[in-house]
């Protein structure tokens, strides 16, 4: 299974969501080394991308890394731009806001690809009662916005992990 977390520039929200999701999936023994072909479909690959090309090749934002590392997360990827190929090869795209969603949907070739695009907020613990919230972009804001971003992502990730587990179970993997 392949999941891509998506925001605008791929330096704040999506790399943070990628790091949080990677750790949560690893703790549940649901990940695999994508270079290890023997893993087959037994695990989950997580990547991130931005809908714009502003930061292709760059490391995540300094505060994304700083706050994330204090929370125990690791950052190994560099900025990438979302492509139509990503929609074809991914099983799930977790977008941070409606603008990201619209941009991702514009790349979709058909309804099957459009169905892969979901707001991360759909998986939040209170989405059923409080509604689905977007993850606000902390870029250009103080550290507190990055901390709030992580709290929101960390709240949604257990719902994503449950969804992944259910999806893998239904596939028999």
TrEMBL record:
Active-site residues annotated for this sequence: 7 (nucleophile), 13 (nucleophile), 137 (proton donor)
Source taxon at top rank: Bacteria
GO molecular function: protein tyrosine phosphatase activity
Keyword hit for Hydrolase: yes
Transmembrane parts of this sequence: none
Name used for this protein in its record: protein-tyrosine-phosphatase
Protein family per UniProt: Belongs to the low molecular weight phosphotyrosine protein phosphatase family.
EC supergroup of this enzyme: hydrolase
Gene3D superfamilies linked to this entry: 3.40.50.2300
Ranges for domain Phosphotyrosine protein phosphatase I: 1-163
Organism of derivation: Micrococcus cohnii
UniProt entry keywords in alphabetical sequence: Hydrolase, Protein phosphatase
UniProt key word tRNA-binding: no
InterPro entries reported for this sequence: LMW_PTPase, Ptyr_pPase, Ptyr_pPase_sf, Tyr_phospatase_low_mol_wt
EC number: 3.1.3.48
């Amino acid at each position: 299974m392949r999941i891509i977390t998506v925001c605008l520039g791929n330096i704040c929200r999506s790399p943070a969501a990628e790091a949080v999701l990677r750790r949560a999936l690893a703790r549940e023994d649901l990940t695999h080394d994508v270079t290890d072909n023997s893993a087959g479909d037994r695990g989950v690959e997580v990547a991130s991308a931005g809908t714009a090309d502003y930061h292709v090749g760059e490391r995540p934002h300094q505060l994304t890394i700083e706050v994330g590392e204090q929370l125990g997360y690791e950052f190994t990827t560099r900025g990438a731009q979302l492509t139509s190929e990503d929609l074809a090869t991914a099983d799930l795209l977790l977008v941070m806001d409606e603008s990201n969603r619209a941009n991702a949907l514009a790349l979709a070739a058909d309804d099957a690809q459009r169905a892969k695009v979901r707001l991360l907020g759909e998986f939040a613990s209170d989405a059923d009662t409080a509604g689905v919230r977007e993850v606000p972009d902390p870029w250009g804001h103080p550290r507190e916005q990055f901390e709030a971003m992580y709290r929101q992502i960390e709240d949604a990730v257990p719902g994503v992990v449950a969804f992944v587990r259910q999806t893998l179970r239904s596939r028999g993997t």
